TrEMBL record:
PANTHER family: CEREVISIN-RELATED, PEPTIDASE S8. It comes from Desulforamulus aeronauticus DSM 10349. InterPro entries: Peptidase_S8/S53_dom, Peptidase_S8/S53_dom_sf, Peptidase_S8_Asp-AS, Peptidase_S8_His-AS, Peptidase_S8_subtilisin-like, Peptidase_S8_subtilisin-rel, Subtilisin_Carlsberg-like. This is Subtilase family protein. The lineage of its organism: Bacteria, Bacillati, Bacillota, Clostridia, Eubacteriales. Belongs to the peptidase S8 family.
Length: 365
């Protein structure tokens, strides 16, 4: 593994330091480690650096000033479940996708369309040239190749963005919150892969840019204390984070960061309202939402159907945007309780590992 060969490590210090500026004490520790290319990780009192093989993680922890040392783990988009039929839908018609209707979004639009709510899609980017996304896409950033475009070279982020907030143009599709503001925070490359460092920097960017809701349709099976710390800090500062449970297809298989208590963890249901066969489930799951055969935006101005807990997560991010616009003074705790209170549990839905049930945002208003 490249990370082990290069000995790239994320180091979390016990004592805080100012953004971008190590204290003399922290700088001394970094020098003692003979760390190369140290970069601060804002918000979590950490650095990422390359260490010589002559110093072990245990030695670093023994200094007393360090609380955690870990690899810069890989993250990846939650894999899409296969769709077995060909999409014959015309982009010149307008459709309210089944998932948008299933959670009652369209029943909310006379009162709220998510106007003014800033939603960050931490993913593979967004196609800003798509006719259903251009109006609502307000900006973004690229942490895969800093300074480059945040355009989507994979397709996953564009699909997720359309579910959340595809605008009502009279053609194409309509998202859950068609007047929410989208921000593309690119942390995944064209293969759908990224790192914990990218995710941490993305969360910090959201905090500094007035984001209200964060959609995380990526995951890893590796626990990262650094990522947990970033999520905890963001939550404490009022950021509402929605995360995909995963597509591992069994109980007790929820991925990080959806495992963390500070996220709204989302698993997927199919068109019958049953837990999707591919969806992860477990005690960490908070809500269920539509994830199967979801029609949404894609690269090059097109539309495709895809399945996965990523799609379910996007429905919940859009639902939160609807509630935030309707109740702008409510904090994230009240919004979360409001959202969960509207969930419904069909009699055939197993109680174990499925949270509060299937979201119904119209019943949460």
């Amino acid at each position: 593994m490249v990370d082990k060969e290069k000995r790239v490590r994320i180091i979390l210090f016990k004592d805080p330091f100012q953004r971008g500026e190590l204290t003399r004490h922290h700088a001394g520790l970094v020098k003692w480690m003979r760390a190369q290319k140290p970069q601060t990780l804002p918000g979590i009192n950490g650095v990422i650096c390359t260490l010589p093989s002559s110093i072990s993680d245990e030695e670093i922890l023994s200094t007393g000033g360090v609380k955690a040392v870990e690899e810069n783990f890989k993250i990846s988009l939650v894999p899409w479940a296969p769709v077995k039929f060909k999409n014959l839908w015309s982009k010149y018609e307008q459709i309210i996708p089944w998932g948008v209707q299933y959670i009652g979004s369209h029943l909310c639009w006379q009162e709220t369309k998510g106007q003014g709510v800033r939603v960050a899609v931490i993913d593979s980017g967004i196609d800003g040239n798509h006719p259903n996304l251009g109006d609502n896409l307000k900006g973004g950033v690229n942490f895969v190749n800093p300074g480059a475009s945040f355009a989507d070279d994979n397709g996953h982020g564009t699909h997720v963005a359309g579910i959340i907030a595809a605008s009502d143009t009279g053609t194409g599709i309509i998202g859950v919150a068609p007047e929410a503001e989208l921000f593309a925070v690119k942390v995944l490359d064209k293969w759908g892969e990224g790192t914990v460092q990218g995710a941490i920097n993305a969360i910090d960017w959201c905090l500094r840019n007035g984001i209200h809701v964060v959609n995380m349709s990526f995951g890893t099976d590796k626990y990262s204390r650094a990522l947990e710390e970033a999520v905890r800090v963001a939550h404490n500062r009022g950021l509402l984070i929605v995360a995909a449970a995963g597509n591992d297809g069994g109980p007790d298989t929820v991925d990080y960061p959806a495992v963390f208590d500070q996220t709204i963890s989302v698993a997927a249901v199919d068109q019958r309202g049953r837990l999707a066969s591919y969806s992860s489930s477990g005690p960490e799951v908070d809500l269920l939402a539509p994830g199967s055969n979801i029609l949404s935006t894609y690269r090059w101005g097109s539309f495709v159907r895809q399945s996965g807990s990523s799609m379910a997560t996007a429905h919940i991010s859009g639902a939160v945007a609807l509630l935030k616009a309707k109740y702008p003074k409510e904090d994230i705790h009240r919004l979360r309780r409001r959202l969960i209170s509207g969930a419904r549990r069909p009699k055939f839905l197993a109680e174990k590992g499925t949270g509060a049930g299937i979201a119904r945002v119209d019943l949460s208003l």
